[in-house]
Amino acid sequence: MSWLVTGGAGYIGAHVVRALAAADLAPVVIDDLSSGHEAFVPDGVPFVRGTILDSDLVEQALRDHAVEGVIHVAGYKYAGVSVQRPLHTYAQNVEATRILLEAMHAADVANIVFSSSAAVYGTPDVPLVTEDLPKRPASPYGESKLIGEWLLRDQATATAGSEHPLRHTSLRYFNVVGSGDPVVYDTSPHNLFPLVFEALIEGRTPRINGDDYDTEDGTNVRDYVHVADIAAAHVVAAQRLAAGQPIEPAYNLGSQNGLSVKQIMDAMARVTGIAFTPEIGPRRPGDPDRIVATGELAARDLDWANRYTVDEMVRTGWEARRAH
Q1: Does 78 participate in catalysis according to the annotation?
Q2: Closest Cα to residue 226, out of 173, 262, 263, 286?
Q3: 169 or 288: whose pLDDT is higher?
Q4: Where is the signal peptide (predicted)?
């Protein structure tokens, strides 16, 4: 039996694939390479190239590889850009998830771990976000992730009395950074770490998008969590589902203590040894002031922990990027 990782050639997905392989859970990758890289897929891991919007392809992959569960990482993950591209965001994140669930039902695959997002909360008015906080997404991206969670919930209800009832959990997190393997690094044109790395490599000055947020230093505050920790939590969730153990419908993979963009910039200069004063640009649409989540439920059930300091996050990401 194997686990299908949608988006398994991407930055987060490729780390999940490695964590599955280390746990002897036989990963299989499906990815259309729109933002992923075939070189990120380890040798010996089956790779299906194509979009999960192709229901026949997904169902065939599930059957061909005797898949017992799916870790659904594929998606369009750019909150700010989603404001300009809402229809594309919904197609990639909502319609694709619906098709995936339909294919899973046809192939009698009943376990799914969904890569959701802390963006489902919008701009919370509490210091720490818990799973039961009201959901008020501030961008089409956040809305699409929340709808994805609803799809899982509703399909689980619909199949509850069947031979293969859907079992699911959604993992909500925000800024994923660092690297757990020098082969894999974040190639996003929108995420903070790769934007800063590219600027430093090219001799440009990194930029902060907005310094007038309602935070301690004026720059927005987020959970920054290491990609290897994120991948490990996905694997434990898959193991709980496969073993039929109790599992919550959603978990925050939070840091408990957020970091501001300015604090990240300070760590960048410190770790890379390149001194700079960031330029200040305008805010990005859809960016909330602050989102910091607890990880208490995930620590209880998924062995969730933040095992990396901010300097280690920067160092592992910087070393992986420079290796390329």
Answers
A1: no
A2: 173
A3: 169
A4: none
291 Rama sector, left if φ>0, alpha if ψ -120 to 50, beta otherwise: beta
Query: Can you tell me the distance from the alpha carbon of 53 to that of 64, in angstroms, rounded to the nearest whole number?
Result: 18
Confidence of residue 159 (pLDDT cuts 50, 70, 90): very high
Tokens of 77: 């993950």
The pLDDT value given to residue 287: 74
Q: For residue 179, which phi and psi values (nearest 5 degrees)?
A: -150, 140
Using DSSP's 3-state secondary structure scheme, residue 30 falls into strand
Catalytic residue among 11, 78, 90, 141: 141
Note the helical H segments in 258-309. Answer: 261-272, 296-302
Q: Treating both helix axes as pointing N-terminal to C-terminal, what angle do 96-106 and 140-158 enclose, rounded to 10 degrees?
A: 20
What domains appear along the chain, each with residue ranges and CATH number? Answer: 2-176+225-252 (3.40.50.720), 177-222+255-322 (3.90.25.10)
* Residue pLDDT, tens place only, 86-101: 999 999 999 999 999 9
